Amino acid sequence: MKSRILVSVVGVPLLLYVVLFAPEWVTAVALAILSGIAAGELLECVGLLKESRFLSRITVYAAVWTPLCAAFLPQWRGLSLLIYYLLAFAVAVYRAGEIKFAQLMAALFGGLLIPYSFSAFLLVEAAGHRGYLLLPFIFSFGSDTCAFFAGNAFGRHKLAPRVSPHKTVEGAVGGLLGDLVLAIGFVYVMNRYFSQSLHYGGMAVIGVVCSAIAQLGDLTFSLIKREFGIKDYGHIFLAHGGVLDRFDSVLFVAPAMALILPHLM
């Protein structure tokens, strides 16, 4: 409990600073660091760190480079991803039979999809106000928190017992309703105090959709942990686990927000 409180006391103000007030290059560097750590956690989970240090290194390098490239050298992003993609398959072919297909897919997940999701924050920021960067966190953490309390209070029917035995349908509904309320509250604050013109109905729908996406992200990374028999991806956040334990839902919600948000402006 003490470690959880410590992480919250330090982590929440730091997150707010990086998201809302830090220079853009600080935000980009923070995203790159988180991306690299998350990729490393996934590779360790599937055993690739021991099997191929070279493929693991280039995967982590790609995960770090992609958000930086998206922020500072967007014209090189496509070429960088192509080079990594070809190198990953070249290593797999060269080490045929030693690197399993699941490990190769995990490398591509860590080197392409994870940094893509973290890079999506840069597109959310481009929507017009840095406050929008809070939305992936609001919808992810809000859905998780509301689902937890609703599940404890009303949970009767299992949602995905083979993936996460404690999650319930009633909890999932609570997460949906919680994000709906949070979406309306976010619009009120942004429109009243920051001269925005967001639509209540549109953001409410997005809140519900993003709650469903967040819950899918949570279950997806829980599925991976269960398949490989681990409790947490890491311990960088002490009792809260690793980057993938804390940002599993966020990695699914951020790209969705980057895609949807411009249509509300």
Folded structure, characterized:
The structure is a single chain. The relative contact order is 0.13. It contains 10 helices and 2 strands; from the N terminus they run H-H-H-H-H-H-H-E-E-H-H-H. Strands 1-2 form a two-stranded antiparallel ribbon. It is mainly alpha-helical and 265 residues long. It starts with a helix and ends in a 5-residue tail after the last helix. The mean pLDDT is 92.
Layout of helices and strands:
Elements: H1 2-21, H2 24-46, H3 48-51, H4 53-72, H5 77-94, H6 101-125, H7 135-154, E1 158-160, E2 164-168, H8 169-193, H9 200-228, H10 243-260
Antiparallel strand pairs: 1-2
Features:
single chain; 265 residues; two-stranded antiparallel sheet; 10 helices
**From the alpha-carbon coordinates, what is the Rg to the nearest angstrom?**
19 Å
Which structural category do the helix and sheet elements fall into?
A: mainly alpha
The total of beta strands comes to 2
Shape: globular
Low-confidence runs of at least 5 consecutive residues: none
Could you estimate the helical fraction of the residues in percent? over 70%
How much strand? Answer: under 5%
Please give the count of helices: 10
Mean pLDDT: 92
Query: Helices and strands, in N-to-C order?
Result: HHHHHHHEEHHH
Distance between the termini: 41 Å
Q: Which sequence of strands runs across the widest sheet?
A: 1-2
The profile of the biggest β sheet is:
2 strands, antiparallel
